Amino acid sequence: MNEEIKKLNLKAGEYAKVLGKLQDELSGVIVGQKDVSRKVILGLIANGHILIEGVPGLAKTLMISSLARAIDSDFVRLQFTPDLLPADITGTKIYDHEESVFKIEKGPIFSNFVLADEINRAPPKVQSALLEAMQERQVSIHGQTFEMKKPFLVLATQNPIESEGTYNLPEAQVDRFMFKILIGYPSKSEEVEIINRFTGEVSVVIGKVLNSKKILEIQDFCRRVYVDDKIKSYVVEIVDATRNPSDYKLELDGKIDFGASPRASLWLILAAKANALFEGRGYVIPEDVKEVGFEVLRHRIILSYEAEAENISSDDIIKEILDKIKVP
Question: Is 146 helix (H, G, I), strand (E, B) or coil?
């Protein structure tokens, strides 16, 4: 192992301890869901936005608000509703009677952590108001452009079981999310612990573990984590298999209408780097890619009607691809 990798490993080990404390802090509030909290932290250190999907009552909002409280930074919660307007998010120009001039009033999106709660309850026009901020890290208001704060992270939640009063997210916006995380029901023992924790006399207080400066430092280091060319080729083959499954002898013909975009390759590499960092390593191994494959790809594969009719999910397809593509 060369000296550069040794240095990266040493630094990654230091940051991994801090990130472990952050997960422990979240575990003090969130019972179970360790994999979900881990993936949320990976999104944070890879500087990618996150979409969390699950039925009501599974602590989606609590997970995100707890993360924000554990980090000494700005946090805002936006409750998406059908009557919400784009200006309610980004801001607008208002008239100041005292000075007789128009002034820009910035919206709540100008925060470090933005919780877009039940994002699919707002119409597409409102959802698209997030696009520029999520991709370009800036917002244009009446011809003026404003940079977002750093770090800037959009964490959105949506409920998959309701269709009345909801709007499907535009594909362009869905692709802006680094991860789509599915959150499931707790086990029976975990549910007993939830009852004990939230119906007792003692309330849990989240402590500050990190600040914005440290987050930016870790995000910067995340990009320096080493990735071998063989790993890059492995990632490209995984993504290409979603577009041309027959080239890899995958029996998925007619199951996929559209495969993943090149953005999937970028996020697979960055997420794998984040996973390696979380493990205290300064280099990526194939298992890092597999660890984040489902969260990066599941919202980027558009299934055909035939696949939906056969009750085949994007996760089924991803599993088949990961099992089939040769690991370097």
Answer: strand
Beta bridge partners of 180: 51
| Superfamily designation of domain 33-185 | P-loop containing nucleotide triphosphate hydrolases (3.40.50.300)
Cα 97 from Cα 119, distance rounded (Å): 35
For 257-288, how does the pLDDT look when each residue is reduced to its tens digit (9 = 90+)?
A: 888 989 999 999 999 999 999 999 999 999 99
Q: Give the total residue count for the chain.
A: 328
Are 227 and 275 a contacting pair, CB within 8 Å? no
Beta bridge partners of 302: 258
The separation between the first and the last C-alpha atoms of the chain, rounded to the nearest angstrom, is 18
Superfamily of domain 225-324: Magnesium chelatase subunit I, C-Terminal domain (1.10.8.80)
The pLDDT assigned to 118 comes to 86
Tell me, what's the pLDDT at 162? 64
Number of H helices, E strands in the chain: 14, 13
Residue 114, SS3?
strand
Residue 283 DSSP label: B
